[in-house]
Write a structure and sequence with these properties.
15 strands, 45% strand
């Protein structure tokens, strides 16, 4: 009977210890939100949890990690805790400067930035740490300067640049290189007709030589 009483007394204590351990893990210093102050702005971010680690480290990718009270960037490796989760930067006036997301040290999804007046500066997309998808860049007044798409870190497809208030320059890229403009079917057809008309109007062409008697 005495053993039963002791067991009943120990059970609540075990539950309290288990709960305390869970709370300690939840509020672990390496997993909750961190804040770093820089000149003119501050960064708010989260780090990987103790039981989470990347499966494979890619040598061509740059990883963001936290150590020595600073954010470091290393290609193909890291030494510390990887940034993992929402990331934000704020100006001294508390206006939002940058907002994005890290997936085990790699930028992922949509990243946005603004100037101190809250005007959009850029919108870019990432996949597995590389620029991928649409991007837009703006001037200080928030007017669109250029837009296009990235694929695996390189511009691909149509890039539009504003060169004046009513003029846009369009350049096509293929895997980061400018693609030569292909003549359209209409242009080729017009050139073909023009060549035929030129032959008809040229008196020296199409004229048969007189036969020798």
């Amino acid at each position: 009977m005495r053993f039963l009483y002791i067991t009943l007394l120990l059970l609540p204590m075990c539950k309290l210890v288990a709960k305390a351990q869970r709370m300690q893990n939840y509020f672990d210093a390496v997993s909750y939100t961190h804040t770093l102050n820089f000149e003119g702005y501050k960064a708010v971010f989260r780090l990987q949890s103790p039981d989470k680690s990347p499966q494979v480290i890619e040598m061509d990718l740059k990883y963001a990690w936290f150590s020595g009270n600073r954010i470091n960037w290393t290609q193909g490796g890291y030494s510390g805790k990887l940034l993992d989760g929402p990331y934000s930067e704020f100006y001294e006036n508390k206006a939002l400067k940058t907002q994005g997301y890290f997936d085990m040290g790699l930028k992922s999804g949509e990243w946005k930035s603004w100037n101190e007046k809250g005007v959009p500066d850029s919108v870019v997309n990432y996949s597995n740490g590389k620029l991928s998808g649409r991007f837009e860049r703006y001037d200080q007044q928030g007017l669109l300067l250029e837009k296009g798409k990235y694929r695996k870190g390189k511009i691909n497809g149509k890039l539009e640049r504003r060169v004046s208030a009513d003029s846009v320059l369009v350049t096509r890229y293929n895997n980061g290189k400018i693609s030569p403009e292909k003549p359209s079917k209409i242009k080729a057809w017009v050139k073909k007709i023009f060549r035929k008309d030129k032959k008809r109007t040229d008196g020296t062409k199409g004229r048969q030589r007189p036969k020798n008697k």
